[in-house]
Amino acid sequence: MKVLDPLNDFLNGAPSTRNFFERSFLLEEDVQKQIELVKTRKLHSEVVNALREQNDGVSSLVDSQLEKLDDPNVVFVVTGQQLGLLGGPLFTLYKILTAIKYASDLEKSYRVPVIPIFWLQSEDHDFDEIAEAHIYDADLKTSKIKLTMDQSKLGGPVGELLLSTSDVQDLKEQIDDPKFNLIVDKYAESKKLSLVFSEIIREFCSELGLVCFDFHAADLKPQLLGLILDAFSKSSEIASVLKTRENELSQLGIKPQVHVREDSPLLFVTENNQRMRVQNNSYSTEQIEKLIREEPKRISTSALIRPLVQDSLFKTVAYIAGPGEFQYWLQLKPLYQFFKLPQPLVVPRAKMFISEQAQTKLLRKLSIDVEDLRKDKLELVKELVEFNLEKDFQELEGHLKDSFSKIEPHLLELDQNLKSPLAKTLNSSLQNLEKLKRKAERSFVNRNAILTEQVDRLVQYFYPDNVPQERVIAAASFFTAYGSEFVSKIYNEIDLKQLGKYQVVELDGVVG
User: Fold this and answer.
1) Residue-by-residue DSSP string for 39-80
2) Which of 74, 159, 181, 437 is packed most tightly, with the most Cβ within 10 A?
3) At residue 380, does pLDDT exceed 80?
4) End-to-end alpha carbon distance in the chain
C-alpha cells in the first residue's frame, strides 16, 4: 500500500506506517517501554558537567531542571534547530514549547524526571539558511531582515561566527522599531552567533525552564570516539543498510529526504574554514581518531548521524520533529539498530497559525477559517458572494458541445475531411467562451474590490508568499509585541492530542 502523506497516515494509524519507527508515541505501552529502555542507561559525567556549565544560573526554573540530573532515572525529551536570525521562524518556538510540554506530560504521567533539551545546531555550516528573518511591518506585510557578514568569515560552523561592529550596525538599521531592541541588542560586537541565539530563545522561554545544549561548544566528541570511528570504518555497511531502507520507503511511495552516498562516510572535516565531505580513502582511521582526540571541532557529522550522536549522549525518550525532519527520521530505524541504540519516539511538533484581534474579527465577519485561505483567491471570493454566473457558463459550454456533437455526423456524411476543422472550431469556441468567462470574473472582482482586498490581507498574513505563517514569520515579531504572555498563550494552547495538525491560536485578550 502506498503512503500518500507519511505524517498524517502515521498519526491516523495506517497499517502501512507500522514499520516507520521502533516504537510509536501514540501507543501507551510503547511510551512506557521507551522510558524503561533509556532510563537505565548511564549518563556520563562529562555530559552532566557540560549541561551544568552551559545552563547554571540562567534562571531558578532552569536550575530546578538541572537538579534532576542527580536522579539516575532522569530521561530527556530533545528537539533542535539551526541558529535562525532573531531566534528563527515561529516553528522553532513551537518545537521548543512542544518539547517542554511533552516532557512535563511524561513526567506527570509516568512519574519519572524528564528534562527538555534544545540542541543548538551550531555546527551547521550553511550561513545563508540562517541569515534571513521576516517580520510584520506596521501594515502587517512581511519585511525581510538580513544579516550580512564578511564572506571571508564564512564556511566554518555558524555558531563560531563573531559579529563585527558593522554587522551589528547594519542589522539595527534594518529594524527601525524600538519594540525589537530587547532582541536586537543581543547582537553585539565580538559575540558568537550561538550565544546570541541561545540568549534569544531563553528570553522567549524565561518562564518555562528550557535547558539549552551547544554540542559544538561542549567538546564531547572524544566521548563518542567509538561511534564516529564506526561511522568512518564501517561506511560501506552503513550505506548498504541505508540503501535497503531507501528501497523499503520507495516501495511505499516515500522519497527519502537525505541522499545516501555509497562512496562516502557520513562525516565532514573542516579544512581552511571550509567543510569538506570525507571521501573513502581520503583519510585513514588513525587520522580520523587523531582529529577526534586533538582537534574535535574540525570533525562534524551528516544529518543522518547527528541524531545518533544526540542519543549516545542523552537518555532520549522522544525527539520533537518538524514535518521535514519526520521524513528523514523515517530513514533512521535500521541505523539505530546497526549501532545498537534505542531509537527515540518521534513526536511531531505543534503546528499553528497565530491570529491577532483584527484578523480574528475579519475571519468571523467573512465566516471563513484559515484553511479556506489556501483556496484560489478568486474561487474564494466567488464562494463568499455567490458568483451565480458560474452555472450559466457551465450550461452554455454544455449546449455548445451538444450542438457540435449533433452536427458532427451530418458533416462527416458529407465529407470525412471536415472532422479536423470541426474539432478546431469547437476548441476555438470553447477558448473564446473561457476568455469571456475570465473577463466576467474580473468584472466581478472589481465590483467586489473591498472583499477581494480583505481576502488579500488575510492571505498575506497567514500565508505570506504562499507559505504557512509559521515557516516565514520570526517568533520575535510577536514576542516583541506581546511579551512573555504570548509564549504562555502558545504553550497553554498546545494540544498534545492534536500534534502534527494545525491549530489556530487567537491572541484576543493577550495584552502587549
Assistant:
1) HTS---HHHHHHHHHHHTTS-HHHHHHHHGGGSTT-EEEEEE
2) 159
3) yes
4) 50
What amino acid occupies position 498?
Q
Q: pLDDT exceeding 70 applies to what percent of the chain?
A: 97
The number of CA neighbours under 13 Å toward the Cβ of 279 is 3
46: Cα within 13 Å, side-chain hemisphere? 11
Q: Mind giving me the DSSP string for 294-352?
A: H-GGGEEE-TTTHHHHHHHHS-EEEEEE-HHHHHHHTT-HHHHHHTT-PPPEEEEPPEE
In angstroms, how far apart are the furthest CA atoms of the chain? 96
How high does pLDDT run on average in the chain?
90
Match 476543422 to its residue by C-alpha cell.
421
Residue 502 pLDDT class (50, 70, 90 cuts): very high
The 10s digit of each residue's pLDDT in 184-200 is 999 998 899 999 999 99
pLDDT of residue 3: 60
Task: Name the region of 273 (left: φ>0; alpha: ψ -120 to 50; beta: rest).
Answer: left
CB 163 within 8 A of CB 183: no
Q: Which domains are seen in the chain, by residue range?
A: 6-126+194-353 (3.40.50), 357-468 (no CATH)
User: Which range has the worst mean pLDDT, 75-79, 89-93, 162-166?
Assistant: 162-166
| Spacing of C-alpha 495 from chain mean position | 18
What is the number of other CB atoms lying within 10 angstroms of the CB of residue 356?
Answer: 18
Are 213 and 117 a contacting pair, CB within 8 Å? yes
Q: Helices 449-462 and 377-385 meet at what angle, rounded to 10?
A: 130
DSSP lists the bridge partners of residue 213 as: 119
Q: Does residue 387 have a pLDDT over 70?
A: no
Query: pTM of whole model > 0.85?
Result: yes
Q: What percent of the chain lies above the pLDDT cut of 90?
A: 59
